[in-house]
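Ticket closed. Logging final result for NAD-dependent protein deacetylase.
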Amino acid sequence: MDSLQTLASWIQESGSIVFFGGAGTSTESGIPDFRSAAGLYLTEKHSPYPPEQMLSHSFFMSKPDVFFDFYRTKMLHPDAEPNGAHRLLARLESEGRLSAVVTQNIDGLHQKAGSRRVLELHGSVHRNHCMSCSRYYGLDAVTSSTETVPRCPDCGGIIKPDVVLYEEELDHQVLNDSVHAIANADLLLIGGTSLTVQPAASLIQYFHGKHTVLLNGESTPYDSRADLIITDRIGQAMDRIGELLS
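Final structure:
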């Protein structure tokens, strides 16, 4: 039995699956990741400011014009479509097998594929709010603004994306819900993540279920703890698993 068949059989035996994912989950949808050889951090290393700096809270507050120029051109992909990974996870949830998706991604592709129980550790580009009056806006408030720095038409305040920037804390409720979901899962699928970003990566330590599966093209610090490692492209692998489950 090959690795995909093994995972398909484990999925069939499971009643509470949790998927923990990162940027690699969306690369097959045309959204670049951060830390791979073709990732955002390396391809942008010759720009005036490192991406990590531009995506920090202090940089946002001091240079919002530079932040939004980078954010619009590099972080927003409104036309991206879900791939096989997003689609299979949504299907497993609809079948009552998957209890939650815990994601470090901010692209909203899990919801676009039909997933409902999505715990977004780092927020979402689709939620934005005025820093002055707290009015909420959708993504179009940022993408369609004629100003470099989008401003609230009601009060003139800066519209800030509800994404967790460097130097900002993760939402405590989302963290608690993620811990609870992982702790109560019988199968943990980990995909498209280097498992180096903290505190998000530390959440998988709360899993005490039956099987841990890594779906990742590159090695991670947690490889030795996995019961199964699949290095195929995650979207293609999940498409194949979906066929095996049909």
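The chain has a mean pLDDT of 94. No further action required.
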